[in-house]
Write a structure and sequence with these properties.
Distance between the termini: 78 Å
Order of helices and strands: H
Helix content: over 70%
Structural class: mainly alpha
Number of helices: 1
Oligomer: single chain
Number of domains: 1
Radius of gyration: 23 Å
């Protein structure tokens, strides 16, 4: 019985770690996307500025 409880705890800890690491990956992906989008919008606005002037 004790072994089973410890096994369950191990599985829980492992899944928690997995979830945490995947969250980190998702967050860094979000940051990269945001950076790319802001860079693109900067380039676009700069191009518009150049075209207008």
């Amino acid at each position: 019985m004790k072994a089973r409880i410890f096994r369950t705890l191990d599985i829980l800890a492992f899944s928690q770690k997995t979830i945490r690491s995947s969250l980190v990956v998702i967050i860094t992906d979000q940051i990269q996307v945001t950076v790319w989008l802001s860079a693109i919008s900067l380039v676009v606005s700069f191009a518009e500025f150049v075209i207008v002037h």
